[in-house]
Write a structure and sequence with these properties.
- This protein is mainly beta.
- The protein has 2 domains: about 80 residues, Immunoglobulin-like (Sandwich), CATH 2.60.40; about 260 residues, no CATH class.
- Helices cover about 10% and strands about 45% of the residues.
- Strand 9 and strand 10 form a beta hairpin.
- The chain is globular and about 55 Å long.
């Protein structure tokens, strides 16, 4: 299996009880996020303190490491739920219930096509003003029957995304990585997708072959299906499907009414598949006048020998490097040239990442890797 591996975005880790202690002038906040109505843990809820971001794991658990002189508020949100704010606390665990909200289905106002026209008219303004530098966390994992880890690779990386990726490829600088292969799984799709952190960060917004690029965007019909209030802003919910034979995917787009920017994409690819099914989710955040990728995740599923296998990859931009003009480019490589180390290495414990933000493995995942 190829262990090629590149760049990344975002944060995080996990843990059941809230602990907060000072280390290298950082404090560590931990907690659990769950559905207020069903008490079910919420996977990949967005956790933010100031400009530092992370996500919850499968058990709804998170850990975020922040400067002790930073923002005094913790913000947690997930599409389809009310946003939750909490004061920074150091004496007890966070147990955070998120209230589900139902989108409205009013058809008043703009149509789906009119909304997407506004999006495309502001595309350059919202996303392509200047180069972007980010500190990122990347993970890829192959599982059998949704529980048995066959292979995992993780890394903390610095990423530079050009304002024009067609002319200037993305750059990556690895900071720390770890890999463990328990069983080698032979599959062409895994070999192709493995280690594509930089390509994931380019996402559907910046990738030159994206369905949102000017030459491709009107191969789809856009249908407004409702609105939702998200982080105190009105969000348009738009479903899209192919309009002609050039369209090759379908899904849902969430558009911020104020900025006319896409803040979330969910889509399924159904042509030229490398797996039996392929699903992508991408989220974006506003920072310093433009939008950055928050996270991109991919899931490919296939069957072999009566068993179900899943390849999942995730890149999270945990922190935007605002003063990028002072960023030293020494050690950066072209994303498509960077190869993740093949051999097993790195300790699988929470302490391994030091003061970096990441998404914590669950107890059951860690048990398989020790």
């Amino acid at each position: 299996m190829k262990k090629g591996f590149t760049t990344g975005l975002l944060i995080v880790c996990f843990s059941l009880c809230m602990l907060c202690h000072s280390l290298a002038q950082n404090i560590h906040l931990q907690g659990t996020v769950f559905n207020k109505e069903s008490n079910v843990p919420i996977n990949l809820a967005h956790v933010r303190v100031g400009d530092i971001v992370t996500y919850t794991n499968k058990k709804g658990q998170f850990i975020i490491r922040i400067p002790d002189n930073g923002s005094k508020y913790l913000e947690i949100f997930h599409m389809g739920y009310d946003v939750h704010f909490a004061s920074i606390q150091t004496d007890k665990p966070y147990y955070i219930p998120l209230q589900p909200v139902e989108p409205t289905h009013s058809m008043e106002g703009l149509t789906g096509k009119e909304t997407m026209t506004r999006v495309f008219n502001k595309f350059h303004l919202n996303y392509e003003i200047h180069d972007q530098f980010m500190l990122s966390y990347y993970r890829e994992v192959v599982e059998k029957n949704n529980q048995e880890i066959q292979h995992i690779a993780e890394g903390i990386l610095e990423l530079m995304l050009s304002s024009n990726v067609e002319e200037s490829p993305s750059l990556v600088r690895p900071i720390k990585t770890r890999v463990k292969t328990i069983n080698v799984v032979e599959h062409d799709g895994v070999d192709i997708k493995s280690g594509h952190a930089t390509e994931m960060v380019e996402s559907s917004i910046w990738h030159e072959r994206s369905f949102l690029r000017e030459k491709n965007r009107w191969n789809y019909d856009y249908n407004l299906v409702g609105t939702e209030v998200h982080r105190n802003e009105k969000i348009y919910i738009i479903d899209f499907i192919p309009k002609n034979k050039k369209g090759y995917l379908a899904g849902r787009i969430y558009v911020d009414d104020y900025s006319d920017a896409i803040i979330r994409l969910e889509y399924t690819i159904f042509e030229n598949l490398e797996f039996d099914t392929e699903v992508w989710i991408e989220e974006f955040q506003h920072h310093d006048l433009i939008y950055y990728l928050l996270r991109a995740s991919f899931e490919g599923v296939w069957q072999k020998g009566g068993e179900m296998y899943t390849f999942r990859s995730l890149v999270v931009n945990t922190e935007v490097i605002s003063d990028h003009n002072k960023t030293n480019l020494e050690g950066f490589q072209y994303g498509h040239n960077y190869t993740f180390p093949i051999s097993n290495h790195g300790e699988f414990s929470d302490a391994y990442w030091g003061e970096h933000n990441y998404i914590k493995l669950t107890d059951s995942e860690l048990a398989q890797l020790k």
